[in-house]
Amino acid sequence: MSDNTRRKLVDIIRRPLLTEKGTRLLEENKYLFEVAPKANKNEVAQAIVELFGVKVLKVNTYNPPAKKRRVGRFLGTKPRYKRAIVTLAEGDSITLFPET
């Protein structure tokens, strides 16, 4: 894989989301990530395989609605993001909390 393609895949996955729902999904071997808004499911799957070396069975994506925020008298929105729920093959796992 070329270095430019690898860099593009690394930029797709922004961070794991540690929410209440994401923690519950860990029991089903599903992981929740924040991804680039323009990334599609195939790109997300390729990035997970490249970064973590696991087999991806399924990717579900979700664009949450924009949240409004007020600063003084000015109304705006929080930055948009996209969520991806990645289902891994049986026996594969991703270490989100490294042991020190």
Describe this structure in words.
It is a single chain. With 100 residues, this protein is α+β, with helices and mostly antiparallel strands. Helix content is 29%, strand content 32%. The strands form two sheets. A four-stranded antiparallel sheet has the order 1-2-6-3, with helices on both faces. β4 (68-71) and β5 (74-77) form a beta hairpin. The model has no long low-confidence stretch (mean pLDDT 88).
Question: Briefly, what is this?
Answer:
The protein has helices at 3-12, 20-26, 41-52, and strands at 13-16, 30-35, 56-62, 68-71, 74-77, 82-88.
By DSSP, the count of extended strands is: 6
Q: Provide the spatial order of strands within the biggest beta sheet.
A: 1-2-6-3
Uncertain ranges: none
Helix % is 25-40%
Mean pLDDT: 88
Distance between the termini: 32 Å
Portion in beta strands: 25-35%
Write down the secondary-structure element order.
HEHEHEEEE
Q: What is the C-alpha radius of gyration, as a whole number of Å?
A: 15 Å
Structural class, from secondary structure content? alpha+beta
Largest sheet: 4 strands, antiparallel
Number of helices: 3
Question: What coarse outline follows from CA principal-axis ratios?
Answer: globular
Oligomer: single chain
